[in-house]
Design a protein that fits this description.
The chain has seven helices and two strands, in the order αααααββαα. It has two domains: about 55 residues; about 150 residues, no CATH class. Strands 1-2 form a two-stranded antiparallel ribbon.
Length: about 220
């Protein structure tokens, strides 16, 4: 009886081991498929980014487009144009000075956050694709785009303010249009991938969202 019991126990252990091995193998195959799909998706995304970057770079063959891209890139360096807009608003619109200053601070915060992330991610800028970049850059890393981060933050933090000296008109539409053009200009200039720009814009929006939360979870206080 003991021998039979021992043999039965041995068979049970072997069967259990085979089931475990098959389960592990199946899990490994599943993980392999997931990694394969992820790799293909990343490769296709990279190809799409390159194609879009080349198409936008071709637009720079027009001297007017190239000049505009250079001007936008230069004005957005270190968030300069957005900081000037915010400080000018604070100086001329006394009724909302605090909001203008807070919005300006959020623009600066978004820019600084993007610079910090760049030091961690360290993604190289787009390599040569038959043409040299239109502008020089402050650093060698591209993710996320600091221009896009500060532009997005400015459009959201400053665009919703009504300027008393301008008849109470909002700045949303002009600032949003300028921010969008600046984001595109970085790709036309050949110094950022589309994903750099998208990530930068998202970072700017997140910075404003977090910075304008009221004590009771309210949204932007300057609607």
């Amino acid at each position: 009886m003991r021998g039979r019991g021992g043999r039965a126990a041995g068979v049970a252990e072997r069967v259990k081991g085979r089931v475990s091995d098959r389960g592990w193998a199946g899990g490994g195959a599943g993980r392999g498929r997931v990694f394969s799909v992820a790799a293909r998706t990343a490769r296709r995304w990279g190809q799409w980014e390159r194609r879009l970057l080349c198409a936008l770079g071709d637009c720079a063959d027009d001297a007017r487009v190239a000049g505009t891209a250079r001007a936008l890139s230069w004005s957005g360096e270190h968030a300069a144009v957005w900081l000037l807009v915010g400080l000018a608003g604070a100086a001329t619109d006394r009724t909302q000075r605090e909001r203008w200053l807070k919005g300006t601070a959020l623009v600066g915060a978004a820019h600084l956050a993007s610079m910090g992330i760049k030091r961690v991610v360290r993604r190289p800028r787009p390599g040569p694709a038959g043409r040299a970049p239109l502008v020089r850059t402050a650093g060698a890393h591209s993710f996320p785009s600091s221009h896009a981060a500060s532009a997005s933050a400015a459009a959201l933090a400053l665009g919703g303010l009504r300027h008393g000296s301008l008849g109470g008109r909002r700045h949303g539409t002009p600032l949003t249009a300028l921010a969008a053009l600046m984001c595109v200009s970085r790709m036309v200039a050949g110094v950022h991938y589309p994903s750099d720009v998208l990530a930068g814009a998202a970072l700017g929006a997140l910075t404003v969202r977090l910075g304008t939360r009221g004590p009771r979870g309210r949204g932007r206080p300057h609607g």
